[in-house]
């Protein structure tokens, strides 16, 4: 199975009937999502104090998302923004454009907690990763099941 890259740099397995996959990592957490067919994306982030939350929100959230974000208690904003960011990046990976997608043009998180079906035909969910990490999965179509496994080299 030859590995190729799209025009946006997204790796994929070439040929008909090949599984789709997405990869993400943050610090010492790595995620690999695999699906028999259909678009998917996964993203993981480590919640870090000092990340420029409000500036990042103004740069990447849609006007609807930004209004909801700015209405949140300031103490909750960082965690909410990290959750929303992982959804947006997972979606950008799933559609194949990565961060070349204008994320302000897509409203995925119009409430907190994020709605489960923000775009028709898409399923998005958080993944059960250990704190201080947050991870999201975006799938075009339904998700029948998610199988999760931890792996350690020791």
UniProtKB/TrEMBL annotation:
InterPro entries for this protein: 4-PPantetheinyl_Trfase_dom, 4-PPantetheinyl_Trfase_dom_sf, P-Pant_transferase_sf
Superkingdom of origin organism: Bacteria
Pfam families xrefs: ACPS (PF01648)
Gene3D superfamilies in the cross-refs: 4'-phosphopantetheinyl transferase domain (3.90.470.20)
GO MF assignments: transferase activity
UniProt keywords, alphabetically: Transferase
Annotated 4'-phosphopantetheinyl transferase domain residues: 40-110
Membership in a protein family: Belongs to the P-Pant transferase superfamily. Gsp/Sfp/HetI/AcpT family.
Protein name as annotated: 4'-phosphopantetheinyl transferase superfamily protein
Organism this protein belongs to: Streptomyces caledonius
